[in-house]
Amino acid sequence: MHAPAAPAPLMAFAGSPMDRADHIRADPAALGNLMNWRARVMNLDGLLPEFDDNGRLLWHTIADVAPDAELVFLGMMDDRAHFAPVPDQGGTGPAMPRAWQVMQLLQPEDLAIYGGARSLIDWHARHRFCANCGSPTKLVKGGWQRHCDNCGTDHFPRTDPVTIMLVEHDDKLLLGRQPRFPPRMYSALAGFVEPGETIEEAVAREIHEEAGVRVRDVRYIASQPWPFPSQLMIGCTSIADDPELTIDTTELEDARWFTRAELEEARAAGEHGTDLLYFPRPFAIAHHLVTWWLDK
Ligand SMILES: [Zn+2]
């Protein structure tokens, strides 16, 4: 008997079932009415979620949180308003071991709800003062904005675009590794989109800066929200005509071309990888980009 075909993998942090209910954000009376006994408030330890043995988020009621707590309105689900409390402090540095554990243990839908909430409350915790005049700001629009009463400036939660890209040449893919990666792990090259650039220009610039390779025919493949703290990973593919590498060792420890067979073997080897390569983990968009290329 054949096992059923596996469903298409869901990108980690994508696919939230929450209705963002934008029309309620700007209506303080409607928002106030929803802060009732049915409302749910995400149970967090700072920026990390509390969850049960089934990987489901745990929620408080409004009565469980301090009256002066700043609450962000996440949206409506199961006919209930959902909120997340702004912590005293924002995140520092990159994802830590407990965040990696959360990614592996939370159910996909709850991981998506948590990821969006995390980016938002982390932004609030780090933007309590106006970037324009330095005065304290206050949370408005259900937490989708902050306002400075002193100078009138509105501040909006940010999403930072990052390109992450495959480079293809002669049925091989270019992957690189940063010094902080575990041994044998190689991944797709990536970099922030800079002001004044298109996505395609950012892809071409990053690959040239990091690996010395010129690319053409940049195409968009898929994207992933990445809440550490607020990136949108924009997955692309591109073609290189000349494979010669000039590696920028301030950014990368190594970069090299992997054959289709080497990548297939590493994927089949699963979480332990091969002697050559440890395939990117399923919660990373790089995993899905390389998988897309192998299967196309
Ligand atoms: Zn101000």
Bound small molecules, deduplicated:
zinc ion
- The CATH topology name of the largest domain reads Nucleoside Triphosphate Pyrophosphohydrolase
Q: Which regions have little confidence, pLDDT < 50, spanning 5+ residues?
A: 1-7
What is the gyration radius calculated from CA atoms?
22 Å
Number of DSSP E strands: 15
User: What is the arithmetic mean of pLDDT?
Assistant: 93
> Which CATH architecture of the largest domain?
Alpha-Beta Complex
Secondary structure: helix percent: 10-25%
Number of helices: 7
The biggest sheet, with number of strands, parallel, antiparallel or mixed sense and barrel status, is: 6 strands, mixed
| Spatial separation of the terminal alpha carbons | 27 Å
* Sequence of secondary-structure elements: HHEEEEEEHHEEEEEEHEEEHH
CATH superfamily of the largest domain: Nucleoside Triphosphate Pyrophosphohydrolase
Broad CATH class of the largest domain:
Alpha Beta
Can you walk through the features of this model?
The chain is α+β, with helices and mostly antiparallel strands and 296 residues long. It has 2 domains: 22-128, no CATH class; 160-295, Nucleoside Triphosphate Pyrophosphohydrolase (Alpha-Beta Complex), CATH 3.90.79.10. The protein has helices at 22-25, 28-34, 97-105, 108-125, 199-211, 260-268, 285-295, and strands at residues 40-42, 44-45, 48-49, 59-60, 71-77, 80-85, 138-140, 145-147, 154-155, 160-169, 172-177, 189-192, 215-226, 231-240, 254-259. A hairpin with a 2-residue loop joins strand 5 (71-77) and strand 6. Mean pLDDT is 93; it is low at 1-7. Bound molecules: zinc ion. Residues 130, 132-133, 135, 148, 150-151, 153 line the site of zinc ion.
